[in-house]
Amino acid sequence: MNPPDAALAGVDRLSALLERFRVHAHLFHTGPLCGVTHFAAAPGRAFLHVLRRGEMEITHRQRSGAPRRLRLCEPTLLLYPRPLEHDFHNAPQEGSDFVCATLDFDGGPRHPLVQALPAVVALPIAEVAGIGQTLDLLFAETERVRCGQRLLADRLFEVLLLQLLRWLLDHPQEGHIQAGLLAGLAHPKLARALTRLHEQPGQDWTLPAMAQAAGMSRSAFAAEFHATLGVTPGAYLLAWRVSLAQTWMRQGLQIQQISTQLGYTSPAAFSRAFAQAVGAAPRDWLKAQ
Questions:
Q1: Nearest CA to 229 among 212, 210, 247, 206?
Q2: How far apart are CA 14 and CA 33, in angstroms?
Q3: What are the residue ranges spanned by the domains of the chain?
Q4: Does domain 187-288 have CATH number 1.10.10.60?
């Protein structure tokens, strides 16, 4: 495994993202599974499974974006960030350590990480330094009922997800991360600009300002950004601001407040930008929700 790039030391690439678009885990299974276990693709439902011992086979539907068959031969974390049918075959029964949680991503399919992650991530537990301590706590909590057990287990699943995301950012090739946000956050220079955008969405982010944050020339930044994320810097900034605006509107914030926080000169300027990205005025979009 390659160590994290030294150029990213001291750059917190996840906190601003996950503070604005939270993820909530909910434990729903602990213990053995037998035969074939089917997990349906319910709208808005994501999964995080932990196989601590044993082997099993997983199947996915054709053209689902995931491998048709996946064989697990060692302790593994399995992340399904989007609704995706999957079946566990011959899951270990006797003496197995197996726990599952559903994940609720704020904004559902609009959550930036949901859009950036592959259909399924299968990560051997041995690859992730420090994850053993989290798993020890998780399985200790699920072995017997104690006060606050479910709440603590839910939080521990959220810690596991964060550790998994850290690993993906530090090892994008092994995690099969393609063009998109995670690839950008794994980039030693683009990540600095992206983190600043996430932390300060209302700043006057011109192309030269973004390039300066990345420590690159304007032309090199624009070309590298498009090649890595698949969109222009301006298009990404607009999408980020609109995603924040949609979250805030659902929470009840007024258009005036949102336009100010996002750095627009007026509510009318914000509404024009929103309509450009979404195809509907802010109030019309909110009514449709």
A1: 210
A2: 34
A3: 21-170, 187-288
A4: yes
Helix intervals (H) in 72-214: 112-116, 131-143, 149-170, 181-186, 190-199, 207-214
Query: Is 265 buried (19+), middle (13-18) or exposed (0-12) by CB count in 10 A?
Result: exposed
- pTM score over 0.90: no
Which pLDDT band holds residue 98 (cuts at 50, 70, 90)?
confident
Q: Is 78 helix (H, G, I), strand (E, B) or coil?
A: strand
Can you tell me the distance from the alpha carbon of 289 to that of 285, in angstroms, rounded to the nearest whole number? 7
For residues 211 and 232, give the distance between their C-alpha atoms in angstroms, rounded to a whole number. 12
Pairing state of beta strands 86-89 and 69-72? unpaired
Question: Does 21-170 match 187-288 in CATH topology?
Answer: no
142 vs 66, higher pLDDT = 66
Please, what CATH class does the domain formed by 21-170 belong to?
Answer: mainly beta
Q: CA-to-CA distance for 270 and 274, rounded, in angstroms?
A: 6
In DSSP terms, which residues pair with 121 in a beta bridge?
79
